[in-house]
């Protein structure tokens, strides 16, 4: 009788020990996972409401107003991030607790003295000269001013950009004499991080107040980055109008002291000064027996700068036309950051008629942009009605079937 009792006691102790060990292992794994540096994450904060990944919750919010945080600190529990969901409006937005003056760029600063010191640094003549030199035409055409703030959160290893507002934008709609502005922001030179604000309707002084948080960017790399703001006006029926741009090199900008408030004049977009669009090398061969046209996109050279980074991401789109109607299309792969691209890609098109009399082929060289519409760098058309080298190349193809003929062509405006 004593042996079963002893066995039962030892079994109970073993079960309790196993459960305790399992719970301890789970706690250790959870704590070690929360202490790991999070991978790159992007968080968009709209109108001061903070949105964090579940494993990045913190006591301190660095996207909201410091004044409102200090004011509500005594009423909020220390270990909770309180958002009263019942106080949201029909659109899901939270009502603002502090009054904000229109056009005031210093709502996020807790100390007037600190703001005055940082403001003075941000608009110094030396920093303005280092960013860009305005021509006399740019000074005459006022495109407005952009207000924003920069901050680096060392605890989260996050780079924070708050686009506050823009003032004095020109009217892009001649009928209503207003604009529908929004802003696209790109972190150069890699162009990996592209974001944009919402569109604000019919205003020349848009107040965006949108915060973009980029996780996983080391502070040591901040000095090598450049911020590019593109100010645009939305157009429902055609391509959006470009109002201007702002380029901010972060070299020399110190973010270790806290949030830095800045404002910059919006300048005209950097339009290509040279009329040349570069050259494209293509090879074509007409197979009369199979009634097919073989097209090889070989190389492109001397492509112009497509953005402020000075580099393009070109690819070629090939369109086949029969009697001015497109019947087939192909495209090459994108070549990253190069003005002299090597494609070496072959395409075979079936010709729906006998001969090449009503056939033409169009080559579009485009710059790949994940954040917006791809911009056309240059265009080339080959056909019986084409002028210049395009018509000569097409004539040789028709006269010498089954022969691969390659030629360089100058690209025309897109």
From TrEMBL:
<dbReference type="GO" id="GO:0030659">
    <property type="term" value="C:cytoplasmic vesicle membrane"/>
</dbReference>
<feature type="compositionally biased region" description="Basic and acidic residues">
    <location>
        <begin position="81"/>
        <end position="90"/>
    </location>
</feature>
<feature type="compositionally biased region" description="Basic and acidic residues">
    <location>
        <begin position="114"/>
        <end position="123"/>
    </location>
</feature>
<dbReference type="GO" id="GO:0005509">
    <property type="term" value="F:calcium ion binding"/>
</dbReference>
<dbReference type="GO" id="GO:0005544">
    <property type="term" value="F:calcium-dependent phospholipid binding"/>
</dbReference>
<dbReference type="GO" id="GO:0030424">
    <property type="term" value="C:axon"/>
</dbReference>
<dbReference type="GO" id="GO:0000149">
    <property type="term" value="F:SNARE binding"/>
</dbReference>
<keyword id="KW-0479">Metal-binding</keyword>
<keyword id="KW-0968">Cytoplasmic vesicle</keyword>
<dbReference type="GO" id="GO:0098793">
    <property type="term" value="C:presynapse"/>
</dbReference>
<keyword id="KW-1133">Transmembrane helix</keyword>
<dbReference type="GO" id="GO:1903531">
    <property type="term" value="P:negative regulation of secretion by cell"/>
</dbReference>
<dbReference type="InterPro" id="IPR001565">
    <property type="entry name" value="Synaptotagmin"/>
</dbReference>
<feature type="compositionally biased region" description="Basic and acidic residues">
    <location>
        <begin position="62"/>
        <end position="72"/>
    </location>
</feature>
<dbReference type="Pfam" id="PF00168">
    <property type="entry name" value="C2"/>
</dbReference>
<feature type="transmembrane region" description="Helical">
    <location>
        <begin position="6"/>
        <end position="27"/>
    </location>
</feature>
<dbReference type="InterPro" id="IPR000008">
    <property type="entry name" value="C2_dom"/>
</dbReference>
<keyword id="KW-0677">Repeat</keyword>
<dbReference type="GO" id="GO:0030276">
    <property type="term" value="F:clathrin binding"/>
</dbReference>
<feature type="compositionally biased region" description="Polar residues">
    <location>
        <begin position="94"/>
        <end position="112"/>
    </location>
</feature>
<protein>
    <submittedName>
        <fullName>SYT4 protein</fullName>
    </submittedName>
</protein>
<dbReference type="GO" id="GO:0006906">
    <property type="term" value="P:vesicle fusion"/>
</dbReference>
<dbReference type="GO" id="GO:0005886">
    <property type="term" value="C:plasma membrane"/>
</dbReference>
<dbReference type="InterPro" id="IPR035892">
    <property type="entry name" value="C2_domain_sf"/>
</dbReference>
<keyword id="KW-0597">Phosphoprotein</keyword>
<dbReference type="GO" id="GO:0070382">
    <property type="term" value="C:exocytic vesicle"/>
</dbReference>
<comment type="similarity">
    <text>Belongs to the synaptotagmin family.</text>
</comment>
<keyword id="KW-0106">Calcium</keyword>
<feature type="domain" description="C2">
    <location>
        <begin position="276"/>
        <end position="409"/>
    </location>
</feature>
<feature type="domain" description="C2">
    <location>
        <begin position="142"/>
        <end position="263"/>
    </location>
</feature>
<dbReference type="GO" id="GO:0048791">
    <property type="term" value="P:calcium ion-regulated exocytosis of neurotransmitter"/>
</dbReference>
<keyword id="KW-0472">Membrane</keyword>
<dbReference type="GO" id="GO:0001786">
    <property type="term" value="F:phosphatidylserine binding"/>
</dbReference>
<feature type="region of interest" description="Disordered">
    <location>
        <begin position="62"/>
        <end position="131"/>
    </location>
</feature>
<keyword id="KW-0812">Transmembrane</keyword>
């Amino acid at each position: 009788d004593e042996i079963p009792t002893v066995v039962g006691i030892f079994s109970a102790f073993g079960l309790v020990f196993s459960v305790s060990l399992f719970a301890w292992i789970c706690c250790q794994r959870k704590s070690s996972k929360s202490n790991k540096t999070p991978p790159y994450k992007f968080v968009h904060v709209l109108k001061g409401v903070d949105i964090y990944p579940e494993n990045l919750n913190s006591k301190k919010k660095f996207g909201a107003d410091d004044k409102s945080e200090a004011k509500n600190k005594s009423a909020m529990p220390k270990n909770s991030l309180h958002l009263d969901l019942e106080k949201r409006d029909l659109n899901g937005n939270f009502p603002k607790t502090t009054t904000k003056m229109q056009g005031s760029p210093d709502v996020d600063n807790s100390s007037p003295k600190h703001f005055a010191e940082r403001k003075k640094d941000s608009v110094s003549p030396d920093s303005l000269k280092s960013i860009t030199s305005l021509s006399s035409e740019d000074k005459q055409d006022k495109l407005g001013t952009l207000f924003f703030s920069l901050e680096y959160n060392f605890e989260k290893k996050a780079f924070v950009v708050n686009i506050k507002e823009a003032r004095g934008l020109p009217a892009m709609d001649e009928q209503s004499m207003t604009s529908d502005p929004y802003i696209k922001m790109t972190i150069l030179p890699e162009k990996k991080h592209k974001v944009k604000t919402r569109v604000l309707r019919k205003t020349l002084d848009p107040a965006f107040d949108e915060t973009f948080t980029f996780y996983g960017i080391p502070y040591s790399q901040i000095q090598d980055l450049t911020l590019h703001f593109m100010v645009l006006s939305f157009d429902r029926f055609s391509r959006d109008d470009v109002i201007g741009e702002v380029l901010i090199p972060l070299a020399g900008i110190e973010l270790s002291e806290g949030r830095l408030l800045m404002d910059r004049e919006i300048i005209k977009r950097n339009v290509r000064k040279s009329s040349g669009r570069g050259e494209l090398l293509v090879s074509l061969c007409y197979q009369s027996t199979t009634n097919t046209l073989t097209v090889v996109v070989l190389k492109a050279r001397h492509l112009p700068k497509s953005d402020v980074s000075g580099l393009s991401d070109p690819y070629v789109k090939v369109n086949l036309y029969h009697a001015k109607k497109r019947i087939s299309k192909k495209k090459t792969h994108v070549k990253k950051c190069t003005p002299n691209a090597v494609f070496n890609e072959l395409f075979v098109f079936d010709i729906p008629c006998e001969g090449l009399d009503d056939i033409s082929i169009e080559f579009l060289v485009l710059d790949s942009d994940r954040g917006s519409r791809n911009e056309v760098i240059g265009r080339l058309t080959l056909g019986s009605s084409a002028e210049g080298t395009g018509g000569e190349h097409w004539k040789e193809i028709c006269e010498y079937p089954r022969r691969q003929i390659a030629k360089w062509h100058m690209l025309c405006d897109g």
